[in-house]
């Protein structure tokens, strides 16, 4: 009798175990994918290479296996800008230079951030520039020209972005139309901070506007803002427990190119790489996450070339065999193919050579299992 009961119990346990296993697998498959898109503004292959020549540690770029290239031209100019570049990522359509979230015919297009909000995603934006600057703006605003910061800020307060950190306080607080958008955000259940990256309030949306315009560059003494804001956002989303879309911009790699400033370029690339390290740790712990690291375009026509020393007396130059120099072709954007690095679930989709607006479609297809 005892034997019989034992066998029945064993069978029951086995059945419930199998049942459990099955339902566990099902929930994992159905869990929506977290998306992290990192944009190194102006970051081409030569910029990335500086991390390998001038960094102290092995760059985090080396941790990626799924790598591709994008073609960046806009509909109006072969050499694009950050507005058209980010709009291609955010809407899936190429558009004209300077356009923010608008089609090539100047019609507003739904952005990936808006689409995913409707699918119950949390959303976040981190940038070193004003949060109304071209790259972050393309994810929530719809204006004809990137310089319309005050209009972009008006779109921002309607966007309901759950977490943001960057600069641009003046476009909210000290506006030519005298509107106080800072107070409007507070009224919309935001916890705001204009001094530091304080602990978020889990029951509110959280925003950090830490400069009137942009944050300082690394050469001007910026601290670990980009890593800290990224970590804070990831902690907030994780504690909330809903899927998220998070765009993080390393904005000043582009500035290094425009200023033809090798030191600025190097330091900003290394800071961005450090931030990639923060995100890669998160992806390792949370495998249901897809990370894409890319850029809108290259800036400076940068190359890594031979380094020379000039003899002060004779004026003769001799090559330094164990060193390289960062050379700039000019102070403008260039048209080289731009690397794409992907990690995590569905990252294989990002292999190959394709147009910049494909990034949008690849992300949405990954989310929707297409
Ligand atoms: Zn630029």
Would you mind describing this structure in some detail?
With 370 residues, this protein is an alpha/beta fold. It has a single domain, classed as Alkaline Phosphatase, subunit A (3-Layer(aba) Sandwich). The protein contains twelve helices and 14 strands. The chain has helices at residues 2-30, 45-54, 82-91, 112-118, 134-137, 149-159, 170-173, 181-187, 225-240, 253-258, 262-285, 358-367, and strands at residues 34-40, 66-71, 122-130, 163-167, 190-193, 205-209, 244-250, 289-294, 298-299, 303-310, 317-327, 333-334, 338-344, 352-355. The strands form three sheets. A ten-stranded mixed beta sheet has the order 5-6-4-3-7-1-8-13-2-14, with helices on both faces. Strand 10 and strand 11 form a beta hairpin. Helix 2 packs across helix 11 (262-285) and helix 9 packs parallel to helix 11 (262-285). The radius of gyration is 23 Å and the shape is globular. The termini are far apart. Residues 10-28 have low confidence and may be disordered. The structure holds zinc ion. Zinc ion (ZN) binds at residues 42, 82, 254, 258, 299, 333. Zinc ion binds next to helix 10.
């Amino acid at each position: 009798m005892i034997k019989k009961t034992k066998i029945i119990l064993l069978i029951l346990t086995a059945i419930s175990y199998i049942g459990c296993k099955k339902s566990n697998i099902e929930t994992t498959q159905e869990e929506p994918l977290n998306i992290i898109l990192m944009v190194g503004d102006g970051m081409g292959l030569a910029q990335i290479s500086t991390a390998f020549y001038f960094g102290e540690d092995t760059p985090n770029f080396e941790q990626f296996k799924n790598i591709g290239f994008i073609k960046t031209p806009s509909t109006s100019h072969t050499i694009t800008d950050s507005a058209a570049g980010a709009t291609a990522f955010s809407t899936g359509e190429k558009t004209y230079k300077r356009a923010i979230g608008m089609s090539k015919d100047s019609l507003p297009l739904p952005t990936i951030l808006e689409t995913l909000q409707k699918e119950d995603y949390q959303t976040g934006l981190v940038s070193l520039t004003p949060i109304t600057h071209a790259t972050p703006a393309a994810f929530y605003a719809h204006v004809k020209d990137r310089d319309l910061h005050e209009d972009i800020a008006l779109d921002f307060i309607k966007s309901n972005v759950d977490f943001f950190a960057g600069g641009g306080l003046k476009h909210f607080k000290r506006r030519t139309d005298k509107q106080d958008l800072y107070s409007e955000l507070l009224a919309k259940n935001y916890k705001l901070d204009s001094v530091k990256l304080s602990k978020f309030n889990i029951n509110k949306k959280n925003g950090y506007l830490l400069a009137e315009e942009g944050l300082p560059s690394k050469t001007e003494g910026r601290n670990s803002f980009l890593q800290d804001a990224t970590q804070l956002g990831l902690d907030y989303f994780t504690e909330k427990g809903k899927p998220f879309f998070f765009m993080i911009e390393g904005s000043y790699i582009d500035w290094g190119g425009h200023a033809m400033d090798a030191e600025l370029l190097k330091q900003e690339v290394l800071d961005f790489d450090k931030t990639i390290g923060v995100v890669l740790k998160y992806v390792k712990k949370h495998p249901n996450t897809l990370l894409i690291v890319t850029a809108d375009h290259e800036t400076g026509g940068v190359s890594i070339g031979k380094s020379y020393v000039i003899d002060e007396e004779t004026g003769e130059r001799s090559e330094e065999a164990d060193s390289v120099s960062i050379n700039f072709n000019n102070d403008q954007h260039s048209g080289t193919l731009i690397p794409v690095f992907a990690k995590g679930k569905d990252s294989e989709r990002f292999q190959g050579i394709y147009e910049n607006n494909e990034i949008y479609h690849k992300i949405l297809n990954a989310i929707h299992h297409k």
